[in-house]
Amino acid sequence: MCGIVGAVSKSNVVDTLIEGLRRLEYRGYDSCGFAVIDATKTNHPLQRARTTARVADLAKQATEFNGHIGIAHTRWATHGKPDTQNAHPHISNDLIALVHNGIIENYEALREQLIAAGYQFSSETDTEVIAHLVHREYVKLAKPDLREAVAASILQLKGAYAIAVISQTEPKRLIGARAGSPLIVAIGDDGHYVSSDALALAGKAQTMIYLEEGDLVAISEGDFNVWDRGGKIVSREIKPMPVQGEAVELGPYQHFMQKEIFEQARAASDTIAHISEFGPALFAADPKEWQAFDQILLLACGTSYYSACVAKYWLEEIARIPTQVEIASEYRYRQSIPRSKTLVVVVSQSGETADTLAALRHAKELGHGMTLSICNVASSAMVRETQWHFLTHAGTEVGVASTKAFTTQLLALYLLACSIAKRKGLVSSDAEKKMLHDLRHLPQAIHAVLALEPQIISWSQLFIKCENALFLGRGIHFPIALEGALKLKEISYIHAEAYPAGELKHGPLALVTEKMPVVTVAPNDTLLEKLKSNMQEVKARGGQLFVFADQGTHIKSEEGIRVIRLPEHYGDLSPILHVIPLQLLAYHTACALETDVDKPRNLAKSVTVE
What we know:
alpha/beta, 7-stranded antiparallel β-sheet, 25 strands
């Protein structure tokens, strides 16, 4: 979601700030800005630039700026509409400049206090409250000290924050602090840096530290110090800076989403590379500890939640282990009954999803000691905070609407189910070989599905005339229908809902008319005949069926029914193949409607606020 970059260097930091923001664009934002202190001018004035356009526009404004210290930000609006006044950095009395990720829950009470004390607000944000709060604490001090002012201010905040602060009177020091939102410190040869994401600073430094919950850091050009929540100076483990990932370039594709859809065969191959057997080693787990759990709790949000819903079928049918799936944003706010032998599995592309992290921490507070993360980012908070982990190796995903991250999550969860089944003696040696063979063949099967793109493009031309759509699936393919509906509404802005096909007659059938496209996931499995009956219910009401059917289903194109045939049914891995045409349908419909496919309105890639 929001992104922070801060720098103190021997040289002009403006280019570093702009490049850092460019690398954070994939997270989603609706405004951006930066502030620097110009040490070459009398009184070291704070200079700021902000825009509601893209980082490229901010870069054009930046050409005349100069400073050896600065902070920058991409904002995804929570408090206050997306406009320049609400964009970060926020400045208090020409003295304090601040950027912030997170949400301050008690900002209204603090705002009233500050207004009563004479502070004037120019934005609708909760962030401006922090800037004025730091200023108030700063001018109280007999000997002004920015670190002490920030330390006093964060004690008054309730909620989540990662902040970076500079002061016009201390032009060589930057203060950062975090609670609930990530912040790292990068250690370079010519300076020190802070960021919410190591990707922003790849190449600028060789080593880094992760700030822990409640930490505060003061950085200068040649040094940094960290204080914990209690105000004690502490040391944090210095780690290698993540290697800069592959160049994020479009190549021959029109959008990153299209590129990422077509990268799914490669992503699947990378995720299963070098896997020769099922077992706890896949999840960095000790075999003895692996024996201790007898049920699963899956926690996730959005697309990741739908991958967990698919996994419930695998875990209960393949591994025969009771499994519960919870929306992470709801789990921590209800009374649940913890069981000590539960394995808690959290699923997230970024590993920084605020709701999922909060749910994980809540589960641990309840006494759930066994935790596993399935994640695409090795350096993420989620990987660091769970006992075990599995990395999905999807590669950088820029498009806000997740595609390859989703399919690799499914692969990871399938491997989990197979590994538990093997532990329980439910998978023979021959069965394991067959499963591994199917996994290795999966990239080839994905290529065969991607070859259907021209037929799907022709369907998309029909969908642009629609305002609503229904998606149907049964059994393990119902969550795939949910994911298909989510993709269509995310990027085309067509209202879409998904239902288990058997539920049509219990209400949704009332919506079906000749103007209602009904997308149906039709694998050649044990529920096929039931699904065909549900399709007839739609046809009898004049609904228009768009069916993705496996070979051998004997579903034919006729009046009211359009069929695109997928390859043969792929057994337990069928959901991974069936989601791909739904991604392509959403993508090409959005292209035909000329929406901003990679950056759909109101959405962000990395959701780091509750």
